[in-house]
Amino acid sequence: MIKSKKLKTLLLTLSMSMLIAIPAQAATYKVIPNDSLTKLSWLFGTSVTQLKQDNNLKSNTIYAGQALKVPTSYYTVKPGDSLSVIAKKHRISLYSLRRANHKWTSSIYPGQKLMVPGVKVTSVKASAAKSVIPYTSADLDLLARLIRAEAENQPYKAKVAVAAVVVNRVQSKEFPNSIKPVIYQRINGYYQFTPVKNGMINKAATAEDKKAALEALNGSDPSNGALFYFDDSATNKWLWSKPILARYDKMVFAQ
């Protein structure tokens, strides 16, 4: 029989081990089209110089299908887990988790190991009281106004998903790193969000819009990690060519 003091120590050790992700280690990442060392350095929380050194690269050129060593942590899937739950536990975006594992479906199974990008040694305790990105009251109001303009007559899940797309963009590092610059961003002269162009962004938000915005800021993501959304009447072939991650009534959410 283990003495009481030793038993307490053992239980404490086991408890602590369950709360910590596996420390960062070298893993193999398969390059996909449009990847670059810069994007991968952002995704895995390292530098271009370190990636080149770890992979004996003489230039910044990489190609689709190439296997690269990247620093990452691993998480073993447990019963009841989902990708969104795992992302929230580690306080990373669902988009980043999908991107690191090339996982654009929601199918996972207990015992499966997933790379957790940008996490060295991380507590997996989720804190619902903290948002997944920093925001001000003005940011919350702006996000809620975007929800009203884009999804006024759509289901509540679609409203949360609209806000989640903004959150995912803030976290993706392929877009600006805060809410207002993301919403007002123009790329090649084109507004990323139509309500900014047509002025609908200035309509006051409802209490439900603000509630949906807060849910997304606290980690809820019905978009399943999407970076884009559009109406199902859209004729843009480029948008429809993207992997579809979720649909709610007339709204389509894509990677």
UniProtKB/TrEMBL annotation:
One Pfam family, short name: LysM
Gene Ontology molecular function terms on file: hydrolase activity; lytic endotransglycosylase activity
KW Oxidoreductase (keyword) present: no
Source superkingdom: Bacteria
Signal sequence extent: 1-26
Residue intervals of the LysM domain: 27-70, 73-116
Keyword Aminoacyl-tRNA synthetase recorded: no
CDD domains noted in UniProt: LysM
Sorted UniProt keywords: Signal
Protein name listed in UniProt: LysM peptidoglycan-binding domain-containing protein
Classification lineage: Bacteria, Bacillati, Bacillota, Clostridia, Eubacteriales
